Amino acid sequence: MAGILGVGSGIESIDSIVTALVNAEKAPKTQQLDRLEKATTSRFSALSTIKGSLSSLQTAIQNLNKPSLFTTRTATSSSGAVLSAKADADAVAGKYSVQVQQLATSSKIGLQSIANASTATFNSGKLTISTGSSSFEVDVTAANNSLSGVRDAINTAGKDQGVSATIVSDASGSRLVLSSTKSGAGNDIKVAVSEDGVTTGSVALTTQAFQPSASLQLPSFSGASSSTLFQSGNLAIKAGGVNLNVAITDGASLEDVRDAINTSGSGQGISASIETDSSGSRLVLNSTNGTDLTLEATVSGGTPANNALTALNPASGVTATSAGPNSSTGGAGVISKAQSAVLFVDGLKVVSSSNSVSSAIDGVTLNLAGAQSSADLTAGKTVDVTIGVDKGTVKTNIQKFVDAYNSLMNAAAQQTAVVQVGEGENPVTGALVGDATVRGLVAGLRGELVKMTGDDGFRALAELGITTQKDGTLKIDDTKLTSALDSNFEGVAEYFTGDKGLMVRLDKNVNEYLKTGGVFDQRTKALQGTLSNIDDQREALDLRIAKVQERLVARYTAMDQLVARLQKTSESLTSQLASLPGFVKKD
Fold first, then answer.
1. Considering the domain 106-208 in this protein, what is its CATH number?
2. What's the pLDDT at 527?
3. Nearest-angstrom CA–CA distance, 242 and 189
């Protein structure tokens, strides 16, 4: 344009004139669109802020609206070194006195040691390893009949059974040590062996057979065993899976009792012997049925002058023992025996194969950590387990609700504020001043908060110590809230989560704004539509202004060309007039 306009007319600023006219035509609409775009973007951003705060409030409402929140139970123990506790929703609030006599343990044994283990080999055959009612088999062949080969075969076959093997060396040689993860009485590790004669090694495979045994010392009696007499009654002996009842006649001596046990226990792995020392004579029970061995005597009558049969019951704290591996002879033995946990809940005996006991108190799991000392048990010392409602978590969620509500109210106030900045100056206004959506939201929430509900229990937030302040936010009186939870916990739960509870009503109200197709979705789409329309209007404006500019350029070009032609005509006339006779040009 600058290279054409003004050539004929001599007006050098014609292009500037066109530009100024174009800008003057474009400016009002551009400013209008700029103002509309800025206002729409501000509303969009402000609504996003309100929506974010409302989403946080909805999360707090829904967390406080969970009935499970008010059925959660706490479980505390007065001695974490002895046990910890966990309660579920079915647990009844209360206090229980617990004593832990022994923990549940799993079995660990050492098999017969082998000299020159690096070169020794076993005869081929099969190991059958069992723990309680579970068992698995390990084939020993020429490919794996070394000590390390058998170890690896046991670890492979026993992986799913919780049985593992390692090699331990001592003065007698090297031996396989087997461990089990299955605790509880009767779950001792047993090893049965059979050889197949296919491969002959330097060591018989049968040396690795093991049947755990136990012995139990009964109280001693002064005097000769033959003159120690007892009243009639019954001896209930338990050894592994064997339950043996031995009837004792009135006037039976210690020797008679021994013989009665041996007769009844013949073929069942149970026997008795008499040991004599400086304290007197005592019976010793023996079992080859595992490490679990107990005796309980009951009296049925008899001559009062005789010893009560109950005098044979083991002394407090005395349990069956098992011989461990022998480092001198290389003999096999029990390193740790499988036993059940024994505890007393309010004086009632509970036996558990696991240290996680869920059968003692309904809805409560006791996790045993350590047994009490004999002195504490004898003195009757107990561990207190207290089950209560989880008021702390409820208070935390109420506080989160109040915080989220206050955050929303502050955001709404900020976006709808009108702030005077000085005399004669226009006030600074929030992006959503007078916005119907925000007004409706705030009014709806406040309406639910002040609504009185029900005839019984709590009817308003203020009764829980939650009040509305001048700026519309909420404030908690912790003392009053704690008192309400302590005095009527179920009432608090009903107020918040009942069929017409506050959180139920608030959640319904909030959902109308946040759901797909809800109020905020509609407002957002409308604002996005406005922004899209602004872009369309800008494009239309650019097209119109381009046509205006084109029209102005055409007009000024025509004018410039006309002026140029007129100027040439003027010059031509001047030249012709100057050439006429008698024409005198004056300087």
1. 2.60.40
2. 77
3. 17
- What are the tens digits of pLDDT across the range 165-197? 999 999 999 999 999 999 999 899 999 999 999
Burial 203-220 (b: 16+ CB within 10 A, else e): bebebbbbebbbbbbbeb
Which pLDDT value is given to residue 572? 81
**Helix 436-450 with 519-578: angle, nearest 10 deg:** 160
Q: Measure the CA–CA gap between 453 and 503, rounded to whole angstroms.
A: 12
Give the H or E element holding residue 275. Answer: strand 270-277
Torsion of CA 137, 139, 145, 150, to 10 degrees: -30
Rounded to two decimals, the pTM is: 0.69
Sign, Cα dihedral of 72, 73, 74, 75:
negative
Predicted confidence (pLDDT) per residue in 54-71, tens digit: 999 999 999 999 888 988
Residues 6+ apart with CB under 8 A from 522: none
How is the chain split into domains, by residue range?
A: 73-104+341-389, 106-208, 214-238+249-318
- Segment 314-323 shows an average pLDDT of 89
Question: In this predicted model, what pLDDT tens digit does every residue of 482-540 receive, in sequence order?
Answer: 999 999 998 999 999 988 889 999 999 999 988 888 888 888 888 788 778 878 888 88
Report the C-alpha gap between 312 and 220 in whole angstroms: 8
Q: Which long-range contacts (CB under 8 A, 24 or more apart) does 71-75 make?
A: 72/389, 72/390, 72/393, 73/363, 73/387, 73/388, 73/389, 73/390, 74/386, 74/387, 74/388, 74/389, 74/390, 74/392, 75/364, 75/385, 75/386, 75/387
Q: Are residues 173 and 95 in contact, defined by beta-carbon separation less than 8 angstroms?
A: no
